[in-house]
Structures
1.
Amino acid sequence: MSVAINVEHVIKKYGEITIIPDLSVEIKNGEFFTLLGPSGCGKTTLLRMIAGFNSIEGGNIKFDDTIINNIPAHKRNIGMVFQNYAIFPHLTVRQNIEYGLKLRKIKKAEIDERVDKILSVVKIEDYQNRLPEKLSGGQQQRVALARAIVIHPNVLLMDEPLSNLDAKLRVEMRSAIRDVQKEVGITTVYVTHDQEEALAISDRIAVMKDGIIQQIGKPHHIYIRPSNVFVSTFIGHSNLFRGMLHYNGEESYVTFENGYKVRMNNLIHINEGKMPVVISVRPEEFSVNDDGLLVKIKTRTFLGKYVNYELEFDAGMILPDQAGIEFSQDIGHAQRTYEVGEKIRLMPNASKINIFTENGAKNLVKEALEYE
């Protein structure tokens, strides 16, 4: 039976080093919940705390209303899928999937019924008598997924399960994992550093940095309305500009360093006057327009459905230490494409861009929510 997971003010330390200082999150029953962040942010540490592989130095983790802090890992009734599959090389596919059921002393008739069903769900019936060495990476990952689910766990935990697969197979397997999870209806916590994977597969995402959750929300909301500059630049690409926010009664607008003005009607009203801000514009939020910002094409990359241009602005207009300032042009709607060295004018979409405080800690757009 699936459960909700409540993480309440948990702390994780290794000696004097604090990995997770004070983290709380509620994961809904049956939800596909992804922990996303760069290496070392604490996402796998949190997953292992839920699993029972890591100790908890403070706070509580609950399955529904039951505190599980001191329950051994093997008694938490979790299914676990690892990066390296962790299937037995000397056992056939069917024997691998049966293994956990036999440990639980399940009757043979029920074992056969459960295994037949899960083989069908993960679509590996035709491979059930093969040894793992005769399987592709994607097929082996399906075996690991089947073995984790067949025991009817309360929670399914997945730690970077697709990172060893090639790009095409990752796309195929993330769809398979999503479909299986929805069919089984099990609460799933999934760890990845791959932003595209997280956006494609999750009900909700928690973006982590330095052991702290920066934002929790549905994939489209986190992408469109990131809560701070870190989330904005970690998920997808964002062009960051220096700017000034002007309040004048009910009217507000931002100006770029060169004086270019964009009227805004969706900002939190903080105070009258003006304040320095960071203006974030994703590459697809620019459009070619005679009233836009004047830019020069630095490089051009053809990517099939669109052309990606790296842009050259006056140095004082942009925040330092960015990989590049980019504009993505949809080929399907383009009148023409542009050449390296050409100057064009680009207009930011006022309804889509994000405005952050000068330190990047807060999004001033009304729809931006830190926790959803």
2.
Amino acid sequence: MIGVLAILGPGTLGTSAAQWAAECGLETRLLGRDLAHAELGLRVIHARWDQAQAKGRLEPSSRIQASARLRAEPFTPAVLKGTSTFLEAIPEDPDLKAAVLVKAAQWGCPDLLMLSGTSALSIADLACRSGLEGRLVGFHLFVPVPRMAVVEMAVPPGTSPAWVERTKALGQALQKRVVQVRDQPGFAAARMALAQGLEAMRLLEAGVATAEDLDALMTLGYGHPVGPLELSDRVGLDLRLRIAEGLAAAGEARFQPPPVLQGKIAEGASGLKAGQGFYAWSSGRKQP
């Protein structure tokens, strides 16, 4: 029994996860710093459902049922009463994540399943910062959550098997293949994607080919759905830079960020969300 799932963070990841959880039949609470913040995320989800219904991809009855399972709430002690699982889906700032994990652990019941949605931060480090050693599990969902069929579960040494089994059960309830990986900075998925993205940036910087042509080699040659530079724009060049800097600082020289990436961030060109990265973007679409 999964119980009530609370997701903190009405941003890209949080809204995508909450939408899919409700569609999968889970009682879901989308939490924000206050009610207005949470309701912003709820409006985003309803707009997606409007589009899906208009295009015939979502039955009206299914939309009504999913909507009934989803509520927007402020992040307060009261909302965590009766909650079975807490997933933080806030920005990749370890201090910020640790602070909310401490609060959730204090406010929730002793058997509250504690999950971090980070894609790259060490779970063991977050657990140490928040006093959750042996209890915190990494639950890296890929966006858009409804379309991506896998979740990366990062488990630090010493984690109770009970927490691991409950996390797997949640992944299965969300209709995902659960891939368990060893906890380390970058886990497995982010490291593989980052390595490819950084190499594409170095090739671009060296004038080997254009961004469009480098991406075409991977989409048309290897069948990737998007190329490494477009993917970097979609993920966020600022996030790519933070992960690369963290891994390089830990002694992994191959992840040293190239100057072209540092330059994009200095210019404010962080990718899709900024409207400019390795490509120009408008209304979520890559421009010619």
3.
Amino acid sequence: MTPLTPPVPWPRLRRPLVAILRGILPQEAASIAGALVEEGFEAIEVPLNSPDPFRSIETMARLAPSGVLIGAGTVLETAEVDRLADAGGRLMVSPNVDADVIGRAVGHGMVTMPGVLTPTEALAAVKAGASALKFFPANLLGPSLIQAIAVVLPAGTIVGAVGGVGEREFAAYGAAGIRTFGLGSSLYRPGATASEVREKARAVIAAYDAAFPMAQETLRADG
């Protein structure tokens, strides 16, 4: 299957974990993103139904190291993709599969992760040029169903589990071949302090490394 638009590849992150900061305030963006990055997160998403999300994204993108993906979630319109690009965002996450939205994001050189639920949606997202797929809500699908759908996808498709998934579920999803996760309320809730987020992030990173020790060994061997 050849995508309508050549996709931007999913980056080789040390840990493919996306921190979802729904409800974050712009004045909290620097401290909370800083805590996440220092603990090992390399991808951060600010859903667009958060207060003044593009301001938060701009702050994070300006301060984050070059290898860290900062972007937006709940992206529904091409105009929002353009605003995300203006804010310096490099990650576009959507709850649905919209070829125009994905194509606009790819045109801006963004990594894309549209939300899917069925084989039809997953294959349509791949065809549109998605970098990775966000199976949502993962807690209702479960690892076995996601694994069954992944079988019909092109080899090498990055499959992520998002929604009701936390560090306690890493092992179960890992057994189904899933290594990529989006973490929301288990990591951040509105009003949380940077120190609270840091503590949760540290626990998540430790749990991920325990669940996928071979992945960490491979990265260390590759330098």
